[in-house]
Design a protein that fits this description.
Blueprint (H helix, E strand, L loop, with lengths): L23 E4 L5 H9 L5 H5 L3 E7 L5 E10 L2 E9 L8 H15 L4 E7 L3 H9 L3 E2 L12 E7 H12 L1
Parallel strand pairs: 4-5
Antiparallel strand pairs: 1-2, 2-3, 3-4, 5-7, 6-7
Amino acid sequence: MWPSIQIASTRSSSILRPDREKLRIGIEDPSQPEIRALLEEADTDPGVPAASPAARFHVARDDTGQAVGTGALLMHGAWAELECMWVAKSHRCKGVSRAILDVLEDCAASEKVRYLRLRTDAGSHAAIALYKRAGFSPCPPSASCPQDPHALFMQKDLQEASERQKSATD
């Protein structure tokens, strides 16, 4: 049974946009029909990784309770892979992607993950811009990933980012 919990981000409320405050982001079962339909819109299948004990599958819901976005972490000890990032077309450009990413980063940090890694389509300019603004930088693919000329691999050192943030506020 997947717990339906709300995860509060530790981010300062001053960076949250007003429309983000209406979101509830929590861990949910990706096999729910509503979530499957949202992922089909993205042509994404969470498959076995999202259903494994190492996965943390998150759903963003708006103030009406409608699922409007997803994101997942697949835990690998000191690092985690970001997967299934998707926001419904009707909710894009409203800060939903960044809100999901913030919660996923906080979840990873709470589980002592140091590195957050992802793979995105090299032509996905909006996604790449989001990840760069969030502090991700290009990196080589992991040994388990097949080479793909259309993919861009990115990574963020969460410990380093946390230390920089602390220094900036001191």
